[in-house]
Specification:
With 260 residues, this protein is α/β, with parallel strands linked by helices. It has a single domain, classed as 3-Layer(aba) Sandwich (Rossmann fold). It contains nine helices and twelve strands. Strand 6 and strand 7 form a beta hairpin. The longest helix is centred in the middle third of the chain and has 17 residues. The chain starts with a strand and ends in an 18-residue tail after the last helix.
Length: 260
């Protein structure tokens, strides 16, 4: 099974929608999504910038989407202990401060850093992860342990198939052809990817960037029948923009963004 995460188009944060550039990006994204096969379900953040990004695609695909409250941006305010100022997100701290705290890089301890704990970030993170795992259970993927990013499912291959090492072949058996789309935000997307891969979200929030309307794909790897983990196959792809001559937006990045 594939999980397809799409960040909203270039945002107009003040008006909770997307900019004119964002509208162009959304149209190009819609063309790309309309060509996809076997899209099982589509889910969307309740925020206007995500909803407005998805509208053109739904029209082209003649589909509907389900809005999930926990797919909202992970925009819970904190007081930055280094600047003493209120921040609208719990990341984007200076690199020198990030590397001064080892807990930030621990997938089980990152949210116990005092300023995050005081803002109840651990509670909000747990709510997002619980919502996502509950959704995955509807597709027959059940997490075996809160601290282990491994999921049980009905087997999609036999013991004999599992014993054959085929991972170096160019083409392999599609064990689960369902594809689930999530149109949301950079922050909540990386929170979920951290949960699915066993990585501290702080590392993802500070070490990676995905541009507006970028496509990120995680797939299941079932090496033991009935036991899977999720692995990133594509991160932040914006080929639908670059092929059309539309430069990716740098919104959310401290500097210029170039697609090659």
């Amino acid at each position: 099974m594939k999980l397809i995460f799409i960040r909203h188009a270039d945002p107009d944060y003040l008006n909770n929608t997307i900019t004119e550039k964002g509208e162009r990006e959304a149209e190009l994204l819609a063309q790309r999504m309309a060509s996809w096969k076997n899209i099982t379900d589509i889910y969307c953040s309740p925020y206007g910038r995500a909803q407005d990004t998805l509208k053109p695609a739904l029209l082209k695909m003649d589909r509907s989407a389900t809005t999930l409250d926990w797919l909202r941006e992970f925009d819970y305010h904190v007081i930055d202990p280094f600047t003493k100022k209120e921040r609208s997100v719990c990341w984007d701290i200076l690199p020198r401060n990030l590397y001064a705290e080892k807990k930030f890089f621990d997938r089980t301890k990152w949210s116990s850093v005092p300023y995050l704990k005081k803002a109840n970030i651990d509670t909000y993170y747990s709510q997002v992860c619980y919502g996502f795992d509950t959704l995955l259970e509807a597709y027959d993927y059940t997490r075996i342990d809160a601290d282990k990013a491994i999921y049980n499912c009905l087997p999609h291959l036999t013991d004999q198939e599992a014993a054959c090492d085929s991972h170096l072949l160019a083409s392999q058996k599609n064990l689960d052809d369902r594809n689930i789309v999530f149109v949301c935000h950079l922050g909540v997307m990386f929170a979920l990817i951290g949960h699915l891969t066993g990585i501290s979200p702080m590392q993802l929030w500070h070490g990676f960037f995905v541009a507006p309307t970028s496509v990120t794909v995680l797939g299941t790897e079932e090496r033991v029948p009935g036991e899977v983990m999720f692995r990133v196959q594509t991160l932040g792809d914006v080929s639908h923009l670059t092929f059309a001559g539309e430069s990716p937006s740098a919104s959310g990045y401290f500097g210029n963004v170039t697609a090659f």
